[in-house]
Design goal:
This protein is of the alpha+beta class. 20% of the residues lie in helices and 33% in strands. The C terminus is likely disordered.
Amino acid sequence: MQKLIVDKKFDNKKISDFLYFNFSGLTKNTLYKAFRKKDIRINDIKINEDTIVHFGDNITVYIIDELLFKNLNLEKIYEDENILIINKPDNIEVVGKDSVTSILEKEYSYISPCHRLDRNTTGLLLFAKNEEALKILLNKFKNKEIEKHYLAKVYGIPKNKHEELTAYLFKDNKKAMVYISDTPKTGYVEIQTSYTLLERNGKENYSILDIELHTGKTHQIRAHLANIGLPIIGDGKYGINEVNKRFGYKSQQLCSYILKFNFVTDAGTLKYLNGREIKLWNEGTHNSFHF
């Protein structure tokens, strides 16, 4: 049995959407069997699949955990006594219940993420295995001494092979959205994103871009690329639904694939990482892996 409270994000949404979001292993067959058996309740009232949930509702789910949660074997890309880098899968949060972090906490006495990836963004995710390493790495990210590169499949072909972009971002917490402005505005913060064109397909009108993230704001890459007319394919929030359906992707085609440690200040016990580059794939293999 699992108990949940509906947050603002799912206010006035279908109960099925709320449950699929919270339980990574839940299938349509399992869910509708539970509805038929009246094994799902809202505020202790039996409900059906068409029920709408509201902010603050108490949800009780009488389904065994084995049918609710994926049994994920997280791929470890690099590990030593201080850090762990994994290949984050699709459709899972970095922190929270049934997250990458909660899975790793079953194996490690101390584990803490040093940065974030969106639920449907895949790829390299860096963890600290002790408090000293966490403090150092958070400082390095803050000082831009760790370089992050992403691979994105976008709709459209950029005019320039390489471009460094500056814009301004506003985060709307109520709508769980961000908005981009080309000019400064009250409440907006400056963001910097650069891209390099790796591949282009004129027939299907898509490109593969290497994205370097210089400022790490919520949904920055997805919203910034959409703002310049290059939405990420599969992105249900900032992309184009018709395009997503045509390509058959249900989540954004965005993957963190390179981490570079470029320390210019003292790194203490982590100085051995300076100059290291961790890559998810070898050159030329990204198409077979994700795109």
